[in-house]
Amino acid sequence: MRRTLRVALLGVTMLVLAGCSEADKHQIKNLAMPDRATEQGPYTYELWKWAWVAAMITGLIVWGLIFYAVVKFRRRSDDEVPRQTRYNLPLEVFYTIAPVLMCVVFFFHTVRVQDVMTELDKQPDVTVEVTGQQWSWTFNHGVGEQNPDATGEDGDYAYDSYVYTSGDGNEIPTLVLPVDQRIQFNLRSPDVIHNFGVPSFLTRMDVIPGRVNKLQVTPTVEGTYAGKCYELCGVYHSRMLFQVEVVSQADYDAYLEELDAAGQTSDKPLTGGANVETQTGLAEDDNQEGSEE
Ligand SMILES: [Cu+2]
């Protein structure tokens, strides 16, 4: 009986593993998280990993007790009812305190990691003004020296001039960032709540109309990543994708010059979104006019 069970278990395990591609194995090793591409990413990943460890330990104990009870106290031919335990005070105290303690530990580590993820350095290397509009993104990059005292609020911007790029319903925008620089994103929305997130950065933040949310990350690995809106924000929410390219400082500077040469310049960041009136679905009739400019 025990042997049959063991063979069956082995068979199932092998079947499951045989169905795994290299990509799947990578995913399993990463606990379904993307590779970390920022300085802050590992903090989120460690929290995720240890939450799994804690959940697995709890699970093993619970499953063990369930199977023990199922086997030990299974119905036998003599129909004898096992001894019933009621009002066992030590046991009740234990199962009240244990979950509370577990929650305290989870809470402590969650707050610890959250503090790292939301920490705002007073002097980030680069500030990018991000506008999330229905249904795309506008990225405003500052040109020249950054004013470290600028609050980013009420028109108090960190740079004197900007270059920008913007997506629309047909084309997703690309957010180009320099590697190994602490980047601050000032997040604004002219319409509804969006959420700015890049899975490989292992962080994201709400973009709320009427306020400026600030998020800082330090990308450490050059490459191309996917970004998206994480907040259901309307009919074409699914089109609110963007691409992230983390490049060398030289390539970043060249990119800013490229935008400048293309005439995508402005004194102030476009906080309404460059194409905000011309989005698919918004003012459908004027759409042709709008997109021709
Ligand atoms: Cu959105």
How widely separated are the two ends?
A: 77 Å
The helix fraction, in percent, is 25-40%
**How many individual β-strands?**
11
Low-confidence parts: 282-293
Query: What is the CATH architecture term of the largest domain?
Result: Sandwich
| CATH 4th-level superfamily of the largest domain | Cupredoxins -  blue copper proteins
DSSP strand (E) fraction? Answer: 15-25%
Number of helices: 6
Judged by helices, strands and strand pairing, the structural class is alpha+beta
Largest sheet: 6 strands, mixed
> Which topology of the largest domain does CATH recognise?
Immunoglobulin-like
Shape: elongated
Radius of gyration of CA atoms, rounded to a whole number: 26 Å
Task: Provide the succession of SSEs.
Answer: HHHHEEEEEEEEEEHEH
CATH class of the largest domain: Mainly Beta
How many structural domains are formed by the residues? 2
Question: In order across it, which strands form the biggest sheet?
Answer: 8-5-1-2-3-11
User: What ions, cofactors and ligands are bound?
Assistant: copper (II) ion
**Arithmetic mean of pLDDT:** 88
Outline the structure in words.
The chain folds into 2 domains: 36-75 and 87-119, no CATH class; 126-270, Immunoglobulin-like (Sandwich), CATH 2.60.40. By secondary structure, it is an alpha+beta fold. A 6-stranded mixed beta sheet has the order 8-5-1-2-3-11, covered by helices on one side. A 5-stranded mixed beta sheet has the order 4-10-9-6-7. The protein has helices at 2-18, 22-29, 41-72, 89-118, 249-261, 287-292; strands spanning 126-133, 136-143, 161-166, 174-178, 183-188, 194-198, 203-207, 213-217, 223-229, 241-247, 265-266. α3 runs antiparallel to α4 (89-118). It is elongated. Bound molecules: copper (II) ion. Copper (II) ion (CU) binds next to loops.
